[in-house]
Amino acid sequence: MTATPPALAMHGIRKAFPGVVALDGVELVVQRGEVHVLLGENGAGKSTLMKVLSGSVRRDAGEIAVFGRSVRLESPRAARDAGIAIIHQELALVPQLSVAENIFLGRAPARGGVLDMARMGRESAALLTQLGANVHPEALVESLSVAQQQLVEIARALSLQARILIMDEPTSALTERETERLFETIRGLTARGTAVIYISHRLDEIFAIGDRITVLRDGRNVATQVVRAADRRELVRLMANRDVEEFQPASARIIGQVLLRVEGLSHGRALHDVSFSVRAGEIVGFAGLLGAGRTEIARAVFGLEPFDRGTIFVKEQPCEIRSPRDAIAAGIGFVTEDRKREGLVLMRSVRDNIALPILRRLSTLGVVHDRTENIVAEDAVHDLRIRTPGVTQLARNLSGGNQQKVVLARWLATGARILFLDEPTRGVDVGAKQEIYQLINELASTGVAIILMSSDLPEVLGLSDRVLVMREGRIAGEFARADANAERVMACAVGM
Q1: Beta-bridge partners for 166
Q2: pTM, 2 dp
């Protein structure tokens, strides 16, 4: 009797780019109805392997078989025709189009030669409801938060009814409730025989949803294990080739004077009478479900979004902030949740990105000297342990963790003493997360006031001195570090 072939068999996959071998004989076999987790640090080869599978990068060598049939995946269209769909970590949506138009982009249904908008709306609404997404099909994508856009990206992939579904960090901007809803969808897909390749740096998710794990390091296979038999610490060691603590507890710090106080901040339906304060050396974490208002607070205080009412005090002095320039002048920095679109200029160097907000300070009679820029950038690279061949390296060529460090370096170069961090470890591997956690603690130890917004609840609980819980645009509760735990925070977030 002939054995049923696996959903996917990749053998001897090799891909080299100038100066680097990204994949060196990688093997990956995924069974039907399986959630196969792909683990590895940034730069291990995971994304390149998935780009080969999804047709956006051509392999140099190796064989690929889909349900027992050899395939040549030389374009994204060829991959789709083979029943393969991918949910990218870096969102690939068209901001100016509606949610429904994005979900059916390139294959919109038509009646009599005219786009069937009603059908697109109905089918999009059904997919979004399945994911528990509170998003209207007619809303423009550019008006959505990163988390909502993530759900639209997932809905688009589901609409393809793929037999092999690649999920690259699908929950990186989702809260616990949205993540569980996604897991229910994944379980439904695998029950129908769909093979899911799941990439995540969140180990809790892997043990909740995965069946088997393949670990990559430096473009090569390290191990393949059954999830239920895997050891968390051993997996981290396999990825990093060293022992790494997944979470680092907050260090003891001296808490100083109040650096930022916000009173009665309100904006439309997004924020309602929000008041809080943060002291020098203190990390205040904001938790809450998707759409609860965390990001809106940061954007309002930093001058990116207007607010209807409220007062901002910096060092107990009223401070009028109408633009990011006003916020920077007041010593406020903001690491946004979307570092590639809002945090970095990807086509510019590490040096240019770090120096960008302080060019006026570095210039003489309007001329910026390279030597001065180099000194500032090199000091930041050293202090924040940014891994780069040099300060002239393009930001787009760095790993996610090192890109995030460059964003941090930029704000520290401005002398910011109040720092908003919105999803600071989104899409960052375990080793780089640990380094960023250490940096956050070090910054707080120097007297920086840090406001941490994160959908990763263990991250909030592990780093924060106090936790504020948002619900429907309001602060619904506050917990001291000693009193905060996952059950209490989630109960507060959902109104229990």
Answers
A1: 86, 197
A2: 0.61
